[in-house]
Amino acid sequence: MVENSQIQLVENLLPTTPALNRFVKPNDINNLVAQYGTPLYLIDEETLHAKVKELHKAYSKFVGPLKIAYSVKANFSPAIIRTFITDGITFDLTSVGELHFIKRCKAIPYNAIYTSVTEEFEEYLEVLRTGIRKVVVSSFNGMTNLAKAAEKIGVKVPTMIRVNPEVGVKAGVRASYRNGKFGVPFNGGTIDSAPKLIKHLMNNELLRFEGFHFHLGSQITDFSCFIHALDKMDGFMTRMKKEFPTFQVNTFDIGGGTPILYSEPVPSPTQMAEYLVPRLNQLASSHGIFELMIESGRFLVAESSMLISKIVNTKEFSEHKIVILDAGYHLLLDAALLKQEYPQEILSLPNDKGKSTTMPTKNIHLAGRLCDTYDVFPLSKSSFLGGAEVGRYLSFYNVGAYSLVFNMPFHCQIKPPVIMKTSKGDFKLVRKGTSYEGLFMEEGGDII
Q1: Which of 53, 144, 194, 403 has its CA 20 to 30 A from that of 395?
Q2: Is residue 288 domain-shared with residue 308, that is, in the same domain?
């Protein structure tokens, strides 16, 4: 059970306020905008490497082996995947499309974990044929389909069970709650429960029980939910050991949730790990050493990227000013879906000298180029919009997660180019911008 000292620890966590990652100098932005125009995404390769190291260091006191798994759904840019391949981390996949991307980037399939929602037979055939050998199931039907695929391929698959701890979670996006979509409960009278899946796995000639996976949510700042989930895991594992003498957990994946700065200060990965690692070590001491897997999508990529947009129009009402950009929620969809408060800043460039910076940020309203009421950008407490005038450039920070992957052609909008600042300090085009004609043809414009 969680100790009082651990409860006090989460109450005493001091949020940290890291400086915005201004990894590109104003002159470089000026040159890039002159060459590629706006909107324009920028990615910093060194930040990607630094975030992997930060997670490894944070959990270094865990007594067993540790793996960091990148959730490809956060950003499937080939440039980012190739960067993480050099770091030797694991890839967390949820679709055959993501599987195709890591194959084309020459990632080692064996160094991937596959967690499907649909869990179809044909899907598992493709997964196993590719060489992936660690699969997470979250339904009896999915486990049956995986066994059929394993039999057809002729392999015995290490199989993990995704559980739903059904604990209360305070998070930007919750993933664990009663009767939730993801995972199976610890109890229940149907075949879609953890005990029933364990029973079938322990007696299965095609699948081998490997361990457990859970994911509580995204942007978690109150870590007590992890302790409650681990307490439930402890009790469940004790039950299973009594029922199955050979029961052994080899891999334990506790999902993601590591928060990053958008508006409010958040605890660091080290603070999070200092809270979780003692309980994880207790679990390993009671049930045997296991490989700990920390999944991360948002934390690994969010702070690596920024979006440069141009102010194309303004209008003023009394003391308020509406600033209209050449970007919209088609490039930052979470601003509309989750009211994501990305930090924003008017860029100080050489040709901006002498322009007004008197308008207070609180009286400025950012709007996108789309003809849609929801195409407005909530302001972060870390935003500074003084000097918002037509022709100036504005940067959205920390946009590396769930932005590129949500790009969409609403209003016939096209995808902007993506530039990576490499570890060597140079700039490389890693995604070409699309064209109106290309979008026209993609939508069947040549089919008459």
Answers
A1: 53
A2: no
Q: What is the pLDDT of residues 42-59, one digit of tens each?
A: 999 999 999 999 999 999
pLDDT of 357 > 50? The answer is no
In terms of domains, do 79 and 182 share one?
A: yes
**Residue 204 and residue 286 in one domain:** yes
Q: How many CA atoms lie within 13 A of 368 on its CB side?
A: 24
Quick: pLDDT tens for 368-395: 999 999 999 999 999 999 899 999 999 9
Which residue segment(s) compose the domain that 159 sits in? Answer: 46-298
What is the domain-level CATH number for residue 337? Answer: 2.40.37.10
- Of the pLDDT bands very low, low, confident and very high (cuts 50, 70, 90), residue 330 is very high
Sign of CA dihedral 235, 237, 230, 160: negative
Residue 29 lies in a domain: no
Clarify whether residues 136 and 275 are in a common domain.
Answer: yes
Helix axes 4-11, 269-287, angle to 10 degrees: 160
pLDDT by residue (tens digit) across 288-317? 999 999 999 999 999 999 999 999 999 998
| 184 and 256 co-located in one domain | yes
Q: Which residue has the tokens 């997670």?
A: 55
Residue with tokens 């970007």: 327
User: What gap in Å lies between CA 53 and CA 47, rounded to an integer?
Assistant: 10
Q: Between helices 78-87 and 45-58, what is the axis angle to 10°?
A: 40
Q: Are strands 171-174 and 217-220 parallel, antiparallel or unpaired?
A: antiparallel
Residue 209 tokens, joined: 């029980």
Dihedral-angle region of residue 88 (phi above 0 means left; psi in -120 to 50 means alpha; beta otherwise): left
238 and 324 share one domain: no
Angle of helix 269-287 relative to helix 224-243, nearest 10 degrees?
Answer: 10
Which amino acid is it at 177?
A: Y
| 313 and 356 Cβ atoms separated by less than 8 Å | no
Cα of 57 vs its chain's centroid, Å:
19
CA dihedral sign of residues 213, 214, 217, 223: negative
Cα 149–Cα 85–Cα 114 angle in degrees, nearest 5: 25
When divided into structural domains, the chain yields a total of 2
